[in-house]
Amino acid sequence: MNPTETADVPGTILVDDIGTLITNDPALGRGPLGEIPHAALVLEEGRVAWAGPRAQAPAADARVDAAGRCVVPGFVDSHSHIVFAGDRSREFAARMSGTPYTAGGIRTTVAATRQASDADLLATARNLTREARAQGTTTLEVKSGYGLTVEDEVRVLSIAGRVTDEVTFMGAHLVPPEYDGDPEAYIDLVTGPMVQACAPLARWVDVFCERGAFDEQASRRILAAGVEHGLLPRVHGNQLGEGPGVQLAVEVGAASVDHCTYLSDGDVDALAQAARRPEPTVATLLPGVDFSTRQPYPDARRLVDAGATVALASDCNPGSCFTSSLAFCIAIAVRDMGLTPDEAVWAATAGGARALRRDDVGHLAPGARADLTLLEAPNHLYLAYRPGVPQVAAVWKDGELVT
Ligand code: NIG
Ligand code: FE
Fold it and tell me: Where does Fe(3+) bind (predicted)?
């Protein structure tokens, strides 16, 4: 049976003749990726029911022929800002000619987003979710942060909730222009009426802890207000220079600190120690941002060698990085950040799941969600080996063929 014939098949589905199966479960196969050659998978009711060598596969109601190709867990993209309006392609072009990225362009997107209708914002979010899925992403976190009024943040979060379960309140993205004379008053708004209205719509609270955005003290207050309202913390930090973001994230037990482009030895040590906790703080690297802002790439090798847990995510947004492709991020991480192809694939799947504190995605052991990608390739190395080439043959989410 062809993958396209399975959409409505009830009962169990055998994905057979998998050339290389990446389970991310060392108990099931070779190495940290739990790699199984000549493998099969059985899917049942949206979950993985069985994974192993195809010679031992149990019978199933329907069969999909992987024809010797590779199956990987669906990518877990733990960082995006896909609810927005407007276009910043000229800002990108200027950067490529030497204009530095300052994050000030966030205000351009805020102005356009406030003007946009709900229908237009939802259409953009849906299109980008579809685009990501067609490239193998089956879990996608989505942040607010381009509304920056109580009403607009509520609007953006409601729309985010229509495309994902992983919704993040980021009213502390930047101080909006109407508070230029009194940034403290904006922090009062975020930690008061805004978080109160937004918390029921989100799982996470995030803050841009960076020079020119929110300082350490304000960031700590903002995260604490989110936690008080039942949200779990995550942090944007160390993007434009060294700063307090990483240490603050570790101190408050954030699930992740994202960017990590500029790290001191102390930051690396803190992330290594945080990785040993039962609920670690993950270092989420965003290679597409450093590509699109002409920043240096972070040294992922240094982090992994120190013992930190590393994830890769897209940060898909109209300003600092307008890609939804985790394959692109994997290729950069391998070519320029010192990860092996195995480590990069792990970081974009199991690493992303750790950054979202999820144990049901990012791996394909029995019991996991049946979120998987069939690659037009014999093994996962091809993700970095053939950069820029579409290699996704089919995607299943919760056991349903979606691409
Ligand atoms: O993650 N750093 C802050 N926020 C976004 C950039 C958003 C923008 O430039 O519009 C980021 O890179
Ligand atoms: Fe971001």
Answer: 79, 81, 236, 315
